UniProtKB/TrEMBL annotation:
Lineage, highest ranks first: Bacteria, Pseudomonadati, Pseudomonadota, Betaproteobacteria, Burkholderiales
Protein known as: OsmC family protein
Listed Pfam families: OsmC (PF02566)
InterPro entries: KH_dom-like_a/b (IPR015946), OsmC/Ohr_fam (IPR003718), OsmC/Ohrsf (IPR036102)
Highest taxon of the lineage: Bacteria
Organism: Noviherbaspirillum album
Length: 148
């Protein structure tokens, strides 16, 4: 895996990261640090990447468990150290998983497997941050379906 990060110029603190797969992510600093607030902060990108990594795992594991999963959101709330390096010290993951007849034990298992075995990002961050998880299931069967 490879990534190239380039500062966009002399004014401001905007950086472009080009990934090995050819995608570009823009990052910027906070105004008090010389940024112009044009894009997410680099540590926000780390947090977002971690959310993407674990949500991907959860959906994949649920599909392999023959669950009718139709949506997966994860909200991450974090705390960082006061002094440099300002590493993450706490991260809470709250999953909202939507589908039909999802089994709570399989959702819980998918989240656990992601965080203990598959999600490289959360496993790395666990070295400095206390990780907690919660989830809720939204059953699509609760929605009223049109009658013929």
């Amino acid at each position: 895996m490879e990534c190239t990060v380039r500062w966009t110029g002399l004014s401001g603190m905007t950086f472009l990261a080009e990934t090995g797969s050819g995608h570009v992510v823009t990052m910027d600093g906070a105004p008090e640090g010389g940024g112009r607030d044009l894009a997410p902060r680099p540590m926000e990108v780390v947090l977002a990447g971690t959310g993407g990594c674990t949500a991907y795992d959860v959906v994949l594991i649920l599909r392999k468990s023959h669950q009718d999963v139709r949506g997966c959101d994860v909200t991450l709330k974090s705390e960082r150290a006061e002094k440099d390096p300002k590493v993450f010290t706490k991260i809470h993951f709250h999953f909202t998983v939507r589908g039909r007849n999802l089994k709570p034990n399989l959702v819980e298992r998918a989240i656990k497997l992601s965080h203990e075995k598959y999600c490289s990002a959360s496993i790395m961050l666990e070295k400095t941050a206390e990780m907690t998880h919660s989830f809720e299931i939204v059953d699509d069967l609760a929605e009223i379906e049109p009658q013929a």
